[in-house]
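Customer escalation, tier 2.

The customer says the design service returned an amino acid string that "doesn't look like it belongs to this structure." They asked us to rerun it and document both sides in this ticket. The original structure tokens are below, unchanged.
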């Protein structure tokens, strides 16, 4: 679930100064890794120009480019994620939300129907990706620890 305050996507933009992923600190490692990967892939799909140039090794082997900025994966209490999402949207950050229902089914149609039937105030989240200007992203997430 991606959202920006203007309900638009940043595709074709030059890209954000900073992106972070924040996941529920109590998720088991496999589910936390899954949530972070889904969020990162969703951000990458919205910012197709984000990866840097391809890397070329000493034998001329080509390795697809990686994003030139870091992408920290941070941990937060699940109960704080909805508030963090709201604060990020209020600061005009690009937000990708991963509702809890996303890990309760393998059927994307069921997932979208579940989210569609849920009042926004009742959605809970496994994780978020926040992207935008560095200062507001850091203000919102600077006190969060790395996921370990």
């Amino acid at each position: 679930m991606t959202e920006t305050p203007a309900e638009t996507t940043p595709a074709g933009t030059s890209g954000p100064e900073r992106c972070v992923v924040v996941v529920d600190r109590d998720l088991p490692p496999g589910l936390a890794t899954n949530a972070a990967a889904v969020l990162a892939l969703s951000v990458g799909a919205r910012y197709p120009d984000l990866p840097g140039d391809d890397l070329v090794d000493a034998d001329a082997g080509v390795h697809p480019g990686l994003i030139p900025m870091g992408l920290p994966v941070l941990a937060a209490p699940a109960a704080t994620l909805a508030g963090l999402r709201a604060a990020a949207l209020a600061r005009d950050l690009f937000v990708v939300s991963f509702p809890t229902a996303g890990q309760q089914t393998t059927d994307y149609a069921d997932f979208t129907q579940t989210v569609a039937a849920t009042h926004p105030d009742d959605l809970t989240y496994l994780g978020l990706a926040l992207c935008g200007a560095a200062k507001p992203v850091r203000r919102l997430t600077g006190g969060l620890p790395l996921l370990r």
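Tier 2 assessment: The sequence is consistent with the input. The longest helix spans residues 29-46. The CA atoms of residues 5 and 89 lie 6 Å apart. Sent an explanation to the customer and offered a walkthrough call.
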